[in-house]
């Protein structure tokens, strides 16, 4: 495992700072018109705020929607110009299990498709609080089953499968792998974890990087956990993966933002995975905050992080 040095400064990359300022100002402006007093209104605002950042980027050879499973889960398939490749990435968007969608994270998924040369399937899993833990995990497992059984009919390569996501999506990716391992079922070939939410218990980075100027606040993270679990915490390792035995997992790549309340949870996970004998690639990006990958249209730091992960994924999926 190679973890880049972690500076203890609070300096945020200037381009990432612009991303935070713009999204914050847009949220405030929309909230002033109609306050986010309901979950529906909050989601509407979040979708509108992130819409400009989901535009642009690589053009795909093919993009299509599918629906599957008893819950009627939707997913978006992106096939890059180079073709579907030898493997497929299932990507799970962030948003505290409560907000955002495959629309807000569409550019991220197209970036991964273009940079890896593999197809990407973005899953619109059920959100909390309407559908609490473990419903989203069930949707992820349904997507894996659909891909293995029916993916080829949609032009997808199913020989190698990676599972990944950011924040809440990183949590769901790791937790799904743990559930499959414990049941003795086939595992994904790789896990991509971007600044994942891994535990309800705060770490020291919660104090170092709290506040709107670092994108994700401790109060927001607490509220997201309550939305997902229906209570502040649980002892279930499928909700809090840092409680789990981590042995027997596939190779893992961690994209860790330096200036993020979740930094310490992710560096702790990297160390624990290595101790458990899991192949780990972990990169800490100086000056990056939570959600910084979505700033790829203006941030060289986000571009580097996406390319690092894509190179790692391509080495596994296209082997």
What key attributes describe this structure?
319 residues; alpha/beta; Rossmann fold; 9 helices; 8 strands; globular
Layout of helices and strands:
Layout: H1 14-33, H2 39-54, E1 62-68, E2 73-79, E3 87-92, H3 106-116, E4 119-124, H4 135-150, E5 160-166, H5 168-183, E6 190-194, H6 205-208, H7 218-229, E7 252-259, H8 263-275, E8 280-289, H9 300-317
Parallel strand pairs: 3-4, 3-5, 5-6, 6-7, 7-8
Antiparallel strand pairs: 1-2, 2-4
Helix pairs in contact: 1-2, 3-9, 4-5
Can you describe this structure?
There is one protein chain. With 319 residues, this protein is of the alpha/beta class. The protein has one domain: Rossmann fold (3-Layer(aba) Sandwich), CATH 3.40.50. The protein is built from 9 helices and 8 strands. Strands 1-2-4-3-5-6-7-8 form an 8-stranded mixed sheet, with helices on both faces. It is globular and about 45 Å long.
What gyration radius follows from the Cα positions, in whole Å? Answer: 18 Å
Say what the CATH topology is: Rossmann fold
- Specify the biggest β-sheet: 8 strands, mixed
SSE run: HHEEEHEHEHEHHEHEH
Described by the principal axes of the CA atoms, the overall outline is globular
Structural class: alpha/beta
The name of the CATH architecture is 3-Layer(aba) Sandwich
List the uncertain runs: 1-9
Instruction: Report the helical percentage.
Output: 25-40%
Number of helical regions: 9
β-sheet strand percentage: 15-25%
Determine the mean pLDDT.
96
What is the class in the CATH system? Alpha Beta
CATH superfamily, by name, is: Alpha/Beta hydrolase fold, catalytic domain
How many angstroms separate the termini?
A: 20 Å
Across the major sheet, the strand order is 1-2-4-3-5-6-7-8
Count of all domains: 1
The total of beta strands comes to 8
